[in-house]
Each structure stands twice: as structure tokens, then as C-alpha cells.
Amino acid sequence: MKKILLLALSLTASLSAYAQQNVVTPDAVSFAYGMHLDVAQVLSISPTADVCGPTPVQMTYRDSHGDTHVLEYSVIGTGCSN
User: Fold this and answer.
1) 46-55: long-range contacts at Cβ-Cβ below 8 A with a sequence spacing of 24 or more?
2) Which residues of 33-68 are buried (b: 16+ CB within 10 A; e: fewer)?
3) Whole-structure pTM over 0.90, yes or no?
């Protein structure tokens, strides 16, 4: 009886590992002026590179429907001095 219970418990534990959903990161979309953005919550923004000039950064955000998006846009790097 103990062996059957142990077998059932281990089978349930192994099947629950397969039931977990994998997190898929969406592909980055390049920003273009005039784009309609539906940003409900900003999840993260990549750090700005230490260069003097335009450099790409990525913003990961959630829209009003709960879908996650990645937007890539350019900013001036932090390496410029006055």
C-alpha cells in the first residue's frame, strides 16, 4: 500500500512540473513616431550604455489587456560630458 501511495505521489509531482507554463519573452519592436502605445504598466527598462551618442534601450511593459510587449528606442548615452 505504501509503495502505491509513493508511486502516485511521485507521479503527481512529476506531472505538475510539466504543467507549469514557460515564460516567453516577446520580440522587441522598434519605436516609430506616430505609433499608438498602450502602456498600462512599465515592467523594466534596460540600462543606458556608457557611450556618447545615440544608443538603444528596451522597455518591457504591460498593456491594458495584460499582454507583455518590448519596445526598443534610442536615447543619448551617459558617456557624454559637458
Assistant:
1) 48/75, 48/77, 48/78, 49/77, 49/78, 49/79, 50/77, 50/78, 50/79, 51/77, 51/78, 51/79, 52/76, 52/77, 52/79, 52/80, 52/81, 53/77, 53/80
2) eeeeeeeeeeeeeeeeeeeeeebeeebbbeeeeeee
3) no
CATH no. of 24-82? 2.30.140.50
The residue ranges of every structural domain in the chain are 24-82
What is the DSSP code string of 32-60?
-TT-----SEEEEEPPPPSSSSEEEEEEE
pLDDT at 45: 96
State the average pLDDT over residues 6-11: 56
